[in-house]
Every structure is written in C-alpha cells, then in structure tokens.
Write a structure and sequence with these properties.
Blueprint lengths: L13 E4 L4 E4 L5 E5 L5 E5 L5 E2 L9 H7 L2 H9 L14 H7 L3 H10 L16 H7 L3 H9 L14 H7 L3 H7 L5 H5 L8 H8 L2 H15 L1
Antiparallel strand pairs: 1-2, 3-4, 4-5
Helix pairs in contact: 1-3, 2-4, 3-4, 3-5, 4-6, 5-6, 5-7, 6-8, 7-10, 10-11
Length: about 220
C-alpha cells in the first residue's frame, strides 16, 4: 500500500473526469504519446522531456517499473513517498534493475531521490552494487551516470572482485572506457579471493578487448 493512500503500489489512482465522463489516471497530465519516423509509438513528458516506450499508465510496481523504464510510474510513486528501498528476492533494488536495462533517465531519477536510502551503495545478495550490475550488462552510459553520482569505485563483492574484475569477467570493454579516468594504481593491482587481478581474469576468459583495455589502463597509470 502506498503511504497515505488507498492505492496499492502497482495501481495508478484514478478520478472521474466530468468532461469525458470517464475514469482517468492521476498524475499523468504531463505525458503524451508520439510517433517516430518509423511509426513506433513512444511517450514523452512535456515538462521534463523524459521519454519511454512503455505506456505510462501500465499497471506495475516499482521494481517492474525500473526494469521497463517506466519514468511516469516512478514519478507517481515518488510523489506519494513510495519506498525506493524495496528489494527483490536477490536483494536488488530499483536502481540495480534500472541500470541493468540501460534506462539512463530513470536511473538518474532514482539516484536523485534514492540518496536518503543510499541506493547507489546498496549491495545485492552477491555483494554487488548497482555499478557492478551496470557493468555486467555493459551499460556504459549508466556506469558513467553512477560515477557522476560518486558511487564507490573501490567496492568489492563477496568474491573480492572489484568493478574492474567484473568488467573483465563479463567482457564489458565499453564500461572499462567509462571507468578509465576514475581508476587508480590500487584498483588495478587489487586481487580477488582467487588471487587474480582484473587483467588476469580477462586473460583467463580470453576477453581480448578487455585485456587490451586493462593493459592500456595499467600502462597509463603505472608508467
């Protein structure tokens, strides 16, 4: 139940519009549909200019909204003090799910309103923060966003992996480029619980693009 309302978190509250003699959803007056050059329908907020593909009044809940990139629902949820710290069975919050699907605008909204719950540093059951999740799915734009919000680049998950280990493991070369200017000698030299540096993980996995990126990163920082 959304605090202070009679509405469950996956339902949009409605009101009766006397002009149209129909029930309408609240909080959606700023959203309108558009059609692009290919005939594809999308939705845009006339004030913020945020765009999304999912229909704004799709019935959902905050974690599904994060997966689908439903900015409109999230705006509603935040307007009635909905709890952003809700987690799924794997310990992932809305920010984990938003960045894993590359929803940059929604992720920015969650970062901004999730500061009080420190969502950007919340770990899932494997000890992975949203930064790790963005790297796993090679969402470089979301990695850049998280870095702009000062996420902890030195965090290590339960296996002792750093963000560089994760990029090497999941062949996220684009994310390594985003991480490059934030790295340090300490991060490059860090070994996980198996005693491996990120470069050695990339070697073992035969992820040559990551191998080259890490080698270049190491050369630029250490020499």
């Amino acid at each position: 139940m959304i605090p202070g309302t009679n509405t469950f978190q996956w339902q949009f509250p409605t009101f009766f519009d006397s002009k149209s003699q129909k029930k309408k959803h609240c909080f959606l007056e700023n959203w309108t549909s558009k059609v692009d050059d290919t005939g594809h329908t999308y939705y845009i907020n006339k004030v913020t200019k945020f765009t999304q593909e999912v229909k704004p009044d799709s019935e959902t809940y905050i974690l599904q909204a994060a997966m689908l990139g439903n900015v409109a629902f999230t705006e509603l949820y935040l307007s009635v003090q909905g709890d952003l710290s809700i987690e799924d069975a794997r310990g992932r919050n809305a920010l984990h799910l938003s960045v894993s699907n590359g929803h940059q605008q929604l992720s920015q909204l969650i970062c901004e309103f999730g500061k009080v719950d420190n969502l950007i540093e919340r770990s899932d059951k494997h000890g992975c923060t949203p930064l790790f999740t963005a790297i796993r799915y090679n969402q470089a734009n979301c990695v850049t966003l998280l870095l702009q919000y000062n996420c902890n680049i030195f965090h290590r998950n339960k296996k002792g992996d750093t963000c560089l280990h994760y990029a090497a493991l999941y062949n996220a070369a684009d994310c390594l480029s985003a991480l490059g200017s934030f790295c340090s000698e300490q991060l490059i030299k860090t070994r996980n619980k198996e005693g491996m540096r990120a470069f050695e993980v990339a070697q073992q996995m035969k992820h040559f693009a990551c191998q080259n990126a890490l080698h270049l990163l190491e050369r630029n920082i250490l020499y």
